[in-house]
């Protein structure tokens, strides 16, 4: 898989999860993909101060990204 394909797959994963975040007043943005194994995202809106955002990140976002791009090892939330 090329880095372009990888980015497209990660974006597809984020598109799948975005409606759930938006229904709670939040959103997510892809910041970068490092070494084709680590994805950096930024949780936005209501997700920023949400006490369950780490759980959302691991169980929802990371799981969905790995479904589309199995080589991804970790998903990191970049806080402000």
Task: Detail the topology: elements first, then pairings.
Elements: H1 3-23, E1 26-34, E2 38-45, H2 53-68, E3 74-77
Parallel strand pairs: 2-3
Antiparallel strand pairs: 1-2
Structure description:
It is a single chain. The chain has 80 residues and is of the alpha+beta class. The chain has a single domain, classed as 2-Layer Sandwich (GMP Synthetase, Chain A, domain 3). Strands 1-2-3 form a three-stranded mixed beta sheet. A hairpin with a 3-residue loop joins β1 and β2. α1 packs antiparallel against α2. The longest helix has 21 residues. The N and C termini lie far apart (31 Å). The model has no long low-confidence stretch (mean pLDDT 89). This is Fe-S cluster biogenesis protein NfuA. Belongs to the NifU family.
Observed structural traits:
FSCA_dom_sf, alpha+beta, 2 helices, GMP Synthetase, Chain A, domain 3, globular, NIF_FeS_clus_asmbl_NifU_C, 80 residues, iron-sulfur cluster binding, 3 strands, Fe-S cluster biogenesis protein NfuA
In short:
By secondary structure, this protein is an alpha+beta fold. The protein has 2 helices and 3 strands. The protein has a 3-stranded mixed beta sheet.
Strand order of the largest sheet: 1-2-3
CATH topology descriptor: GMP Synthetase, Chain A, domain 3
| Radius of gyration, taken over Cα atoms and rounded to an integer in Å | 12 Å
Individual helix count: 2
Backbone structural class = alpha+beta
CATH superfamily: Fe-S cluster assembly (FSCA)
How many angstroms does the end-to-end distance come to? 31 Å
By CATH, the architecture is named 2-Layer Sandwich
Overall pLDDT level? 89
Overall number of structural domains: 1
Question: Topology as H/E string?
Answer: HEEHE
Number of strands: 3
Regarding CATH, which class? Alpha Beta
Largest sheet: 3 strands, mixed
Which percent range fits the helix content? 40-55%
Shape: globular
- Percentage of residues in strands: 25-35%
> Runs with pLDDT <50, length 5+?
none
GO molecular function: iron ion binding; iron-sulfur cluster binding
Family: Belongs to the NifU family.
InterPro entries: FSCA_dom_sf, NIF_FeS_clus_asmbl_NifU_C
Pfam families: NifU
